[in-house]
Structures are given as C-alpha cells and as structure tokens.
Amino acid sequence: MISARSVTIVAMFAVLVTLQFTLRPILGWRAGIDFLVIALLILAVRVRPGTAAIAGFAMGLISDAMSPEALGAGALALTIVGFAASRLKSAFFAENIGVNAIFIIVGKCAADAIFLLAEQRLGGGALLSQLLLWTPLAALVTAAVGVMVLVLVRPTLERRRQ
Amino acid sequence: MPRGARTDTRADTAVAAVCVTLALVLLILPDAPRDRVAGIVRGNLVGPLAALQQRASLARRSFVSNDSVVRAADSLVLQAQRAEALVAENSQLRRQLSLGRALRWGFIPAEALVGRGLGDEHTLVLSAGARAGVERLSAVVTADGIVGMISAVDAGTSVAITWPHPDFRVSATSADGSAFGIVSAHPGVGAERYLLELRGVPFRARLLPGTPIVSSGLGGVFPRGVLIGTVLEELEGVSTWARTFVLRPAVRPADVTQVMVLLAERNAEGVESVWAPAVQAMLQRVIAGGDSLARVDSVAKGDTVRGRDSSVTPDSTRPPAGRRP
User: DSSP class of residue B110?
Assistant: First the structure.
C-alpha cells in the first residue's frame, strides 16, 4: 500500500520536474535554478542508492533529450549525483539548514562539472568561466530555492513520519 | 556489516554502474543512433514536458518583447500625432500663402505666439509689432476669415483680441446684402461659448442655416467682405424689435498659428474678392440645400395631386426647382 508520505514526495517531485520545464525557461537566467537537482536530492535521501541512480539516470536522459548533442552527459551526471546523495543521506535533511544548503551547492556543482566534462562542448576559458563563475552562482540560487522547498515540506514529511 | 545489507549495497552499486555505463554508451554513440534514441525519448517520455517548455519559452519571449513592442507602439502613436499636427499646420500655411497671393499688398504676416494659459483664451500675441507697421485697431485675419483686431502694439510684438473677447464687435451683413447686424461673442456656457451672435437683424430679413455672414465694412476696422461665420439658427425671444442669430465662426482661435494683419490702406482698397470664392461656395450649398428640400416637398405634393388627377404632373403645376416664385 502506498503511504501518504510517498504520495507527498512523488507530488513534490512532479512539481519540481514540471517547474524545470516551465518556470526555468520563463525566468531565462544565465545562472538558473536547477529544479531537477533539487528534486533528485530530495528523492535520493529517501530511497536506496540504486533507485536514486536509476531516478538520476531517467531525469538526466529526459533533460538530455531536449538537447541531443549531449545525450548521456546529463544522465551520467545525475546518476552519479543521485547515487552519491543517497549514500550520504545522513548529512542531508539534517536539522541544520546551512548543511542542507551546502549539500545542494555541492550536488549542483558536481552535476554541472560532470556534465560539462562529459559533453566536451566547452573548453579553455569558456569552460573555466562556466565552472568557476556561472556554475557556483547557479548552485547558490538552486540552494536558496532548495532550502525554501525543504522548509516548506519538512513539517509535512515529519508529521507523516510520526 | 550484516550479509543482507552488504548484498543490498552491492546491488545498488551494480545498478548505478549499469546506469553510468548506459550513459557513457549514449555519450559515445554516433550521431544517427543518438538522434534516434533522443527522438524515442522525446516522443514517448518527454512529449508533454517538451510542449510545456516550448510554451514557457514562447511566454518568456512575449514577456521580454512586450516592453519593446509597447515602446514601438508608443513611438508610432507619437509620430502619428505629430504628423497630424504637421499636416494641419502645413495646410494652414498653404492657405496663408494663398491668402497672401490674393491680397498682394497691404498686409503684415505674423505668427501667433500661443500661450494658451489662463487669460490667453481671448487674446493672441503676434510676432509683428510697430516696427513691422502694425497699428492699433488693425484687422487680424486668416484665409478662413476674421480672427480679431489689434488691441495693443509694442515695438516687436502686438496683442490682438480674438472674436470670443467680450469687447469684440464687427458690423456684419449676409453675403447677398439682405441682412445687416452686429456680430459679437455668444454669451453661452460650455461649448456654446465658442459661437458668435448676429444681433439687430431686421425682421424682414430671412437667413437660412448655412448662410455666410461677412463683414460689412462699416466702422473702419474690418473691410467689407471678410468671412465671419455661417448661420446656425435663430435665437428666439432675445429681442422684440430685431432678430438674433447664432453663428458658427469661420475661424477657431485655438487653431490659429499664422495670421495676416491688414493695413488701413488695404482696407480702403477693399478685399471682397479674397473671400468671395469661399462665400459663393457656401451660398451655393445653401441654395442647393434649399432646392433639394423644395424638390422633396414638390414631389410629396405631386403625389397628392397625382392621386386626385393622374393627368396633371407636378412639373406642370409648380415652378421649376431653384426658381423662386
């Protein structure tokens, strides 16, 4: 039987994935919010590492399908990030908001770094500026939104757990 | 670590390794199969999301372009408004040039320096003064007709009172000379403030709506024949010994930008021929309007006659259209 908590997580996951393909293009920021990373990290700490890896692979594949030139790069990045996040689940969802924010920043930076290195589209100065400037900025924005999401959903999830 | 947990960990690692391997395989695929795989994923899994993303991109594009579209529309509206004002000014200047050609001599062209502040409603400051030969009580006209008269003269500028001024008076006559009177501003409220009144018209005189009224030349300020306005209607019950008519002015002071100040010598020479074509055209319109009314009336009466005796035609019983009995 599917628990109410699982339904909440799935709904939140669906909303975040939808936001990735609706709100993100509307905002059009250079350092945009990565809702997929937030969704993956929230899901990853609640499932087994293998399941998190499959979820990351699926999400990456969906993301890659929009830009076929880098097909596989997003899947690789999110698979690794999902698997790693699930392994480190004790750190994530700790009481400290700052730890959660750092976790999202690291996850986003890792996902971007793996993606950029795997797709091999950027090189030299462009790659460096992307990795050292835009990716950290995007990670900060993503972490801010991720923390807001966690603050919003945490009471619901904890009540369900009790 | 218990054996079960260790097995689970190995299984998770194996699943992750398979996913990573699949991702790497996708990465190194040649273009054609990679596009095929991407197409399959897009067609089966990402279709709705792709549609969402497309709509979001369109929404962003329209949102971003909204400001520039509004700016462009505003600029166009502004240009259109300016163009309209330029066309009006150009037309007025052309008419002034034609007026200058018709007058030939004895006039001073001047620009109306429009203030349009409080108190400016009844006066115009003109860019020509005593140095240019402007004298007090000179007539101020445009190609459309009377504007007013000079009330004060400085060296470089002069002030004219326009016809809405309470002190403005001009002796007037109908274009055919059948009616005389004094024209002044109509003391109405609202939009009626911008009409004229022709007072003191004898009861025997008959003025149809649309009849042009021109200056009579009496009084020495305005020469005979300058168009003042056209008859709108008769005001009932104003006076017991004479008729009063409301006139539509020929000139709207608010639209005046260029004027001519007529010199006394030119007034003595006469300017009737200048406004005569416009006055004649107005008279023709009034006559044509009266004729068509008479024709309608005669046809209506003819129908009645035909009803009594079909052998009698309306034409044989009434004077021809346009001829007065």
Answer: E
Other beta carbons within 10 angstroms of residue A149's beta carbon come to: 20
Closest C-alpha to B199, from B189, B210, B191, B207: B207
- Which residue is it, tokens 């793996």? A114
- The letter for the amino acid at B103 is L
Please say whether the dihedral angle defined by the alpha carbons of residues A83, A86, A90 and A95, taken in this order, is positive or negative: positive
* Section B191-206 average pLDDT: 83
**pLDDT given for residue B323 in this prediction:** 42
Q: Which residue(s) pair with B141 in the sheet?
A: B146, B260
> Where is average pLDDT lowest: A133-147, B167-181, B232-246?
B232-246
Higher pLDDT, B245 or B102: B245
Smallest CA-to-CA distance from A112 within A151, A148, A140 is with A140
Higher pLDDT, B64 or B261: B261
Long-range contacts for B91-99 (Cβ within 8 Å, ≥24 apart)?
B92/B142, B92/B143, B92/B255, B92/B257, B92/B258, B93/B258, B95/B142, B95/B143, B95/B144, B96/B142, B96/B143, B96/B258, B96/B260, B98/B143, B99/B141, B99/B142, B99/B143, B99/B260, B99/B274
**Closest CA in chain A for residue B53:** A21
Chain B residue numbers with beta carbons less than 8 Å from the beta carbon of A88 are none
pLDDT reading at B205 higher than 60: yes
CB contact under 8 A, B56 and A22: yes
Q: Does residue B295 have a pLDDT over 80? A: no
C-alpha–C-alpha distance, residues A149 and B203, integer Å: 92
Q: Which residues of B19-46 are buried (b: 16+ CB within 10 A; e: fewer)?
A: bbebbeebbebeeeebeebbeebbeeeb
Q: Please report residues of B whose CB lies closer than 8 A to that of A86.
A: 12
Q: How close is the nearest chain B Cα to the Cα of A159, in Å? A: 28
pTM, whole model, 2 decimals? 0.48
- A75 and B22 within 8 Å at the Cβ level: the answer is yes
Interchain pair B23, A83: CB under 8 A: no
Report the distance separating Cα A70 and Cα A37, nearest Å: 18
Chain A residues within 8 A of B35 when measuring between CB atoms = 68
Residue B186 burial (CB count, 10 A): 22
Q: How far is A97 from chain B (nearest CA, A)?
A: 28
Between chain A and chain B, how many beta carbons pairs sit less than 8 Å apart? 116
Strand spans (E) along chain B: 107-113, 123-126, 139-142, 145-153, 158-162, 170-174, 180-185, 196-201, 212-215, 227-235, 243-249, 258-262
